[in-house]
């Protein structure tokens, strides 16, 4: 009951952060759990405008240009982007598309976060922009058709820190190879896969699992260990402005939306929270808050970078909802005034830096 009340109280924040057409999510009020997932599947399937696989190339300049890091309108490739410094290489749209590659930086192509082999390269899954991203060909190839997971002993590390290696995700019986992206984009990838198993819920039983999809329990959608790590990443890496803008662009393109970007609290409402620890030591924080736990409405923030470079700071609750946005937070010092937030656990995120804090 408490979860449902919290979701109702915070639900309007998602609408403030994205250009959601009026009435788009009609029929979801009062729904939780798998009935909500089924309703969302119906909504994001209705009106879907199918495009060809090749059409994605002409859409990517609108959906995946770098307006957030170097802000140079090159391809925003989550497998090569360095959010805290110079990128190892950049691609201009329409140039250096694969092709053949042997090393990073040779060319870029399209990464299916849910591998094409699991649905036999069929449409519309193959060309669905909500889970198909432009990425470096070499790193895409190294990710192969592996699940996403935690890697402690990588056999391969990309230039921006993505890793391939044996699965070290807690609680998993799968010991094969997985791919772990950098922290900045873990939530992005999680919401891509959660979208996929919602959009294609009615078709999952005919797909291959690949140690990713739960084809025998299409309501859950993902095998349990994969779901748990993705729920953790969703909690640790909240929705960014990049994702909001991409979601809006995708809607104009193919007439459906990723509901877990519009309403990140629905992830918790459907699947609950991850049993893995949110303060996972493997997840870089790079910020500290004092006092913590917070006793009043003012916090002092310090980090391993000059905080004045960051123009926006955002505070999220533990269901992924943005509960406060602060513009130019560090121009006149390193203190932030909180908006009388209720007791609970929160994440402060600014640029690529983030940390958890408690309001007591």
Automatic annotation (TrEMBL):
NCBIfam families: Por_Secre_tail (TIGR04183)
SUPFAM superfamilies: His-Me finger endonucleases
Name of the protein in question: Putative secreted protein (Por secretion system target)
Keywords on record: Hydrolase, Nuclease, Signal
Similarity field: Belongs to the EndA/NucM nuclease family.
Chain coiled-coil ranges: none
GO MF entries: hydrolase activity; nuclease activity
UniProt keyword Signal, yes or no: yes
InterPro entries for the chain: Endonuclease-I, His-Me_finger_sf, Secre_tail
Keyword Transport: no
Highest taxon of source: Bacteria
A Pfam family of this chain: Por_Secre_tail
Organism whose genome encodes this protein: Epilithonimonas xixisoli
Domain (Secretion system C-terminal sorting): residue spans on this chain: 290-358
Signal peptide: 1-18
């Amino acid at each position: 009951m408490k979860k449902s009340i919290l979701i109702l109280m915070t639900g309007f924040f998602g609408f403030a952060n994205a250009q959601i057409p009026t009435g788009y999510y009609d029929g979801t009020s009062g729904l939780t759990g798998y009935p909500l997932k089924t309703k969302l599947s119906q909504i994001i399937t209705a009106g879907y405008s199918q495009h060809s696989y090749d059409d994605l190339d002409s859409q990517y300049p609108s959906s995946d240009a770098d307006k957030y890091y170097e802000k140079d309108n090159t391809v925003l490739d989550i497998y090569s982007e360095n959010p805290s410094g110079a990128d190892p290489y950049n691609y201009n749209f329409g140039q250096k598309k694969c092709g053949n590659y042997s090393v990073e930086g040779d060319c870029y192509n399209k990464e299916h976060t849910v591998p094409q082999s699991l649905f036999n390269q069929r449409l519309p899954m193959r060309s669905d922009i909500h889970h198909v991203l432009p990425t470096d060909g070499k790193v895409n190839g190294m990710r192969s058709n592996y699940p996403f997971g935690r890697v402690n002993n990588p056999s391969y590390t990309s230039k921006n820190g993505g890793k391939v290696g044996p699965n070290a995700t807690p609680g998993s019986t799968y010991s094969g190879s997985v791919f772990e992206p950098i922290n900045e984009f873990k939530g992005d990838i999680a919401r891509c896969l959660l979208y996929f198993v919602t959009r294609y819920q009615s078709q999952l039983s005919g797909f291959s699992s690949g140690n990713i999809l739960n084809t025998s329990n299409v309501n859950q959608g993902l095998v349990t260990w994969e779901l748990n790590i993705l729920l953790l990443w969703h909690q640790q890496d909240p929705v960014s402005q990049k994702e909001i803008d991409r979601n809006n662009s995708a809607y104009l393109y193919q007439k459906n939306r990723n509901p877990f970007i519009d309403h990140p609290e629905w992830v918790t409402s459907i699947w609950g929270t991850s049993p893995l620890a949110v303060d996972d030591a493997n997840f870089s924080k790079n910020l500290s808050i004092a006092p913590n736990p917070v006793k009043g409405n003012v916090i002092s923030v310090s980090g391993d970078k000059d905080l004045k470079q960051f123009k926006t700071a955002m505070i999220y609750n533990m269901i992924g909802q943005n509960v406060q946005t602060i513009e130019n937070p560090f121009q006149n010092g390193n203190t932030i005034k909180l908006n009388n937030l209720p007791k609970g656990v929160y994440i402060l995120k600014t640029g690529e830096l983030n940390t958890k804090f408690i309001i007591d």
